[in-house]
Design a protein that fits this description.
Blueprint: H1 3-6, H2 29-43, E1 67-68, H3 69-83, H4 86-103, E2 109-110, H5 125-142, H6 145-160, H7 167-211
Antiparallel strand pairs: 1-2
Helix pairs in contact: 2-7, 3-4, 3-5, 5-6, 5-7, 6-7
Length: 212
């Protein structure tokens, strides 16, 4: 089975024909290899990864009235980058994460309940770049898998749109993919080591039982 057949989630017009990820077949290591091949293929088409941008401290937009997603994303990223205080802003991060999980889109303008003001206003690609950066910083600070999982889904969307991104956005996508690949492979190696240790412990326990 080809890599594209095993990992088709980063191709196609994903803003309009969204991935659901429901009932994704389990293919084990071949799936991981196909995902990695997909990411490396995209990286080969992108410019060199950008350095992480420098953020200035900014205030949270008023959320009691409709607000712009860009303003909230900048605020949340600046809080994580400058103060490294994930717990302080986790509730807001989780709310916007949940909206992306439901819709697989970033809308320009949200109501106080985090529903879009205009459900058709989802084509600002810079919002997806910013959201991926927010998930990157969130996972880096707390290591919780939901943030890495949503980062992967956002990167899938951005990979499918890579030819529509401007050069600055492409360099940021390259950096975010590099981060994602590093973290996923590190996690995979830890899982393999844990599984091997568990097998060794079980074998040692069986031998000890037989010798006693």
């Amino acid at each position: 089975m080809s890599a594209l057949a095993l990992y088709p989630y980063a191709e196609g017009p994903l803003l309009y024909e969204r991935n659901t990820y429901f009932y994704t077949p389990y293919h084990g290591k071949p799936f991981l290899d196909a995902w990695l091949e997909s990411r490396h293929a995209v990286l080969s088409e992108l410019p060199q990864p950008a350095e992480r941008p420098i953020y200035q401290e900014c205030s949270c937009p008023a959320l009691e009235a409709p607000f712009f997603a860009k303003d909230l994303l900048y605020y949340l990223i600046s809080e994580l980058v400058l103060k490294k205080n994930f717990a302080q802003v986790r509730l807001l991060i989780d709310k916007i994460l949940q909206r992306f999980e439901v819709t697989k889109r970033m809308h320009c303008h949200y109501k106080p309940d985090f529903r879009p003001v205009d459900s058709d206003d989802f084509r600002d690609l810079n919002l997806y770049v910013l959201f991926a950066e927010l998930m990157e910083h969130s996972y880096e600070l707390n290591g919780l898998l939901p943030y890495l999982n949503v980062l992967q889904k956002c990167i899938d969307t951005l990979c499918s749109l890579r030819h529509s991104l401007n050069k600055d956005q492409q360099t940021k996508l390259a950096r975010t993919i590099t981060f994602e690949v590093e973290k996923v492979l590190s996690l995979s190696r830890r899982k393999d080591l844990t599984a091997k240790n568990q097998i060794q412990n079980e074998e040692y326990g069986k031998r000890s039982h037989l010798e006693s």
